[in-house]
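Annotated sample (chain length 232).
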Amino acid sequence: MPLPHPARSPTLSIVMPVLNEAAGIGATLTALAPLRARGAEVIVVDGGSSDGTPARCQGLADQVLAGPRGRALQMNHGAAAARAAVLLFLHADTRLPADADTQVAAALATGAAWGRFDVRIEGRSRWLPVVAALMNWRSRLTGIATGDQALFMRRDSFDRAGGFPAQPLMEDIEISRRLRALSRPACLRARAVTSGRRWDERGAWRTIVLMWRLRWAYWRGARAEDLARLYR
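Output written by the structure step:
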């Protein structure tokens, strides 16, 4: 049963881009019900699913939108429809901590323009805890975050950064660079739990090496479009 939509403005807008996520989207959105009950809104932006994903979202989100395909474009589309002064961008295979809303509010109250959570990766490979630990460590060191870490930010910070760049890969790296010019990120130690499916499907070490190669190439100036072809 859908939750009643609050009359007042939401305290947090959670934007989730989706594409063919019918198998797991119900559980992901159900886990957000307590946050909705406390005043958050959930906006799902579908990029043209062929498996009935939008129908599975009905009643479990405040808005289910059709947007242009591409994660960056979908997130920008959802942000344009969001009503809260704080935005959080969440992958369809990621779960937030139960008190994510209060942690985000407390982090931004310190003056940070944006932030992210630590991440834990669920999957078969025994190397996934190492991957997650390195991701968290690297993010603290560089001030760069990945989408798996559930980026959050003030709306005015999102606007000043120009939103997500219209590119098919590394959109999280690029917006982190822009946001880092506004402030260092609030690096929350509470963990978002994300799926290790891409590591399980491709092999943990193969995926680790591939991602490091792509990031290094992007840092050296490679085009995101070329890297996206390599990633696929």
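Annotation: The two ends are 38 Å apart (CA to CA).
Annotation: The CA atoms of residues 108 and 114 lie 7 Å apart.
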